[in-house]
Amino acid sequence: MQAYRIVEWGRPAEFVDVPVPLPGAGEVLVRMKGAGLCRSDLDMIDAAPASQPYAAVLPAGFTLGHENAGVVEMVGAGVTDLAEGDGVVVHHMHSCGHCEFCHEGHEQSCRTFARGAIGMTRGVGIDGGLAPFMIVPRRELVALGALDPVMVSPLTDAGVTSYRAVKSVLGRLRPGSNAVVIGLGGLGAYAVQFLKLLSPATVYALDRSEARLADGRRYGADHVLLSDNRAAETIMDLSGGRGADAIIDLVGTDATLALAATVSRPHGRIVLVGLEGGSLRAGWGSLATTCEFAVSLGSTRADLREVCELAAGGKLIIDLERFAFADVEAAYAKLRAGLLTGRAVITFN
Ligand SMILES: [Zn+2]
Ligand SMILES: [Zn+2]
Prior knowledge:
This protein is of the alpha/beta class. 25% of the residues lie in helices and 27% in strands. It is globular.
């Protein structure tokens, strides 16, 4: 089969002919239906040899694609609860199941597959879904029932990563509370929707693009604002001086983190997901007293199951643009140019 692979760091990804893998004990061979493309794929494709956070810690020679869903093609020994043709979605984080964090249900922090700041997983150091078939341990699959695998593939990273961040602030959001989402890209679209579905908070959505602000309204944001140097003041004005009980920063520059700190409220929480590499100044006077700050990585299998439940209930707007597998490079080019109108999803015949 043809697989789209990182063959060597510092060289563009390419199609390579590889054998169809066979499932071992406890594993499932998945026939791919939908593979979402992510900006972090471009970071890997562009990574210079030995650069952080990917090339320095992951050996090259793997198939890209970490937002995967499909149907069961074949099960390995010991897998008794799935059968050929069952729809499945793949949790995007690989976990060992027996380290301290896996035991506690924090498998996104699994120590066995941690490689620096990131975890080794399918599409990131291990063969992913940009090929007609992929191998996944049974425990990292969620059965889909009647849900369309193509529609759920973007939920496996963009959806669940923002779901995890939103879940971590829900306890703070009560009637009268305010939540701020910075960045309305692939993740922000879901963060706004989850906040509106799961909390009574007034939601402020910020972006630098007017077009994305219109999307923010469509996803249910109560207020949409340009993310400029007046945004903090506007949030304080609109909220009657209350500020924000929760801020989810899906961008992560010095400027967005400074904005988060400015609007933070005592007992609030700032969650950083965005990978732009900025930092937050924390200390007396720069952050509201008792406000918490967390860097949020990935999600758990339970998160994926819950997000699929929301999708199954018809509660989520899932914007996607479909591309045939042969057109994967055109899809990445469109992603790189910022021309997509939804998550790019590769479909397979
Ligand atoms: Zn991703
Ligand atoms: Zn583990």
